[in-house]
């Protein structure tokens, strides 16, 4: 295992940019006799983009749901932005935005109304300002005024993702959780979406946690990658995780698609 590999918790001696905004300790999740997580530890650093990968059924969604307080773990503790997370209790939910896989937009509301809704529910902002804030978020995700007045079923898949992203940004979150953000998008739309996430991450000082199966996204935008294996997790910088000797990690990053994605990123970096 590479020396800098972060498999177990560390007490942070990093500078402020490496301050941990999410801290998971000793997480255990079981369903009957099936043990999904067994003492899992994870630190997410402020302002990083962390990709979360793993084989099917390794518990990526359960981990995400545990962090969001939507699933009650059997054991362990989770802290987000210095607040302990408890099942179905609000926690710092106004400081995070979530892009669920299907977008989860309300079908009876326009894009504009969907984005305004969290602002209306969780702030005292006057109506006019609320509209302006929602417009701003919609523009930031590259949608037009025309798209803002449409209903979700009148949008393309890529536009729906952008609308859902605008809603996730509605309350100016510090952390953005993305569940398979590029799933269902064609390669061009997926690359554009990666660029958008990267742009927003840098310009809004966001910490991004992204569950993905998209190897292009991993190499394009992730600072570190967390791999769920053996009911725990292995975390390392994107360029180093590929050298981790764990058999599943080797087979995942040794796959021709992953090799191509990595090479394309390396070529891109060299050209710059
Ligand atoms: N509510 C539940 N009841 C019983 N088993 C569950 C429940 N939720 C998840 N599981 C099981 O936990 C395991 C992990 O599920 P999870 O959805 O987190 O996997 P995943 O890594 O996200 O998989 P995929 O990549 O296929 O989406 C699976 O075997 C799943 O069947």
Can you offer a commentary on this structure?
The chain is of the alpha/beta class. It has one domain: 3-Layer(aba) Sandwich (Rossmann fold). The chain is built from ten helices and ten strands. It has a six-stranded mixed β-sheet. Strand 4 and strand 5 form a beta hairpin. Helix 2 packs parallel to helix 5 and helix 7 packs parallel to helix 10. It is globular.
Summarize this structure briefly:
This protein has 272 residues and is an alpha/beta fold. The chain has helices at 60-67, 111-122, 127-140, 145-148, 157-168, 187-203, 215-221, 238-241, 247-254, 256-271; strands at residues 20-31, 34-45, 49-54, 75-80, 83-84, 96-99, 175-179, 207-211, 224-229, 232-237.
Topology:
Blueprint: E1 20-31, E2 34-45, E3 49-54, H1 60-67, E4 75-80, E5 83-84, E6 96-99, H2 111-122, H3 127-140, H4 145-148, H5 157-168, E7 175-179, H6 187-203, E8 207-211, H7 215-221, E9 224-229, E10 232-237, H8 238-241, H9 247-254, H10 256-271
Parallel strand pairs: 3-8, 3-9, 6-7, 7-8
Antiparallel strand pairs: 1-2, 1-4, 4-5, 9-10
The protein binds adenosine-5'-triphosphate.
Domain ABC transporter: 22-255
Protein name: ATP-binding cassette domain-containing protein
Keywords: ATP-binding, Nucleotide-binding, Transport
Question: Which features does this protein show?
Answer:
binds adenosine-5'-triphosphate, alpha/beta, 10 strands, six-stranded mixed sheet, 272 residues, Rossmann fold, four-stranded antiparallel sheet, disordered N terminus
